[in-house]
């Protein structure tokens, strides 16, 4: 579909068409399906969203996966009913395949324990700052303590000196220390799913808001799929846009109702 054929959002990108039966749909979680909360544990998962995702997965023949920076454990806690759906966690470091097989993240280096302890110490002097440990990843959050941003960034830069194979990955009010080099990202997660049934041969569609979603946008663009940015972050490789998580939820809900000329029950 050409941009000129559809209404443009305020951000200058077109709204995506309604999900079609031949899509392989990849959904980011925080800031995309869910509104941001001050603390990662405070997000609210609307009951109708769980129901809509399960229904949409059925309508797409199972070709729907959650692709998140969170751990699979955290995803499963939030989306209990979706436990059996394919998913990628920790930005692609861990995966649950369509047949249930699991890919586990690499073991954390011993040095990460010391970095974690120091980070928690630092967070104590910035009330509201949160240190989230996810296997080999360490997320330094400042949403509830914006003044801690520079201190956490400086800490991350210093920590990389004792974590030689690591890199710092930016997110929304968060900086994450994670294995670097050629380790998986959301783009390779999408490629991995697309290589197997029921995703193979379908049109890939990735919906996400964050910097880490750019890897997946590039892969989807290369396959002539739909890359859908949530929000107005700029620049982005995405070619379509939905304004916020409420609009994403509405878009999904309408698809399950067959409200547009897309996937029908
Ligand atoms: O890839 P995503 O599914 O978007 O996950 C990215 C990160 O999401 C979480 O942090 C973000 O959401 C929190 C809850 O709204 C918010 O408090 C925080 O400021 C955001 O950065 C999660 O905690 C991270 O582990 C994910 O990497």
Automatic annotation (TrEMBL):
Keywords: Hydrolase, Magnesium, Metal-binding. Pathway: Glycan biosynthesis; trehalose biosynthesis. Its EC number is 3.1.3.12. It catalyses: alpha,alpha-trehalose 6-phosphate + H2O = alpha,alpha-trehalose + phosphate. The keyword Transferase does not apply. Removes the phosphate from trehalose 6-phosphate to produce free trehalose. This is Trehalose 6-phosphate phosphatase.
């Amino acid at each position: 579909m050409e941009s000129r054929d559809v209404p443009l959002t305020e951000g200058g990108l077109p709204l995506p068409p309604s999900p079609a039966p031949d899509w392989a749909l990849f959904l980011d979680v925080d800031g995309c399906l869910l509104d941001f909360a001050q603390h990662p544990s405070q997000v609210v998962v609307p009951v109708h969203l769980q129901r809509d995702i399960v229904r949409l997965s059925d309508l797409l023949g199972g070709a729907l996966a959650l692709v998140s920076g969170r751990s699979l454990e955290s995803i499963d806690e939030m989306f209990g009913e979706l436990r059996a759906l394919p998913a990628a966690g920790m930005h692609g470091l861990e995966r649950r395949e369509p047949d249930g097989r699991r890919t586990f993240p690499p073991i954390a280096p011993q040095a990460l324990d010391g970095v974690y302890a120091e980070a928690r110490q630092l967070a104590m002097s910035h009330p509201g700052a949160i240190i989230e440990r996810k296997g080999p990843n360490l997320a330094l959050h400042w949403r509830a303590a914006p003044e801690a941003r520079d201190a956490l960034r400086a800490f991350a830069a210093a920590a990389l000196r004792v974590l030689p194979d690591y890199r710092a990955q930016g997110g929304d009010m968060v900086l994450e220390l994670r294995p670097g080099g050629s380790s998986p990202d959301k783009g390779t997660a999408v490629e991995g799913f697309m290589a197997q049934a029921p995703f193979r041969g379908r049109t890939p569609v990735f919906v996400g808001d964050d910097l880490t979603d750019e890897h997946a946008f590039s892969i989807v663009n290369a396959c002539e799929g739909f890359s859908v940015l949530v929000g107005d972050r700029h620049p982005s490789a995405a070619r379509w846009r939905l304004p916020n998580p409420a609009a994403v939820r509405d878009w999904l809900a309408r698809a399950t109702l067959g409200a547009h000329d897309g996937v029908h029950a």
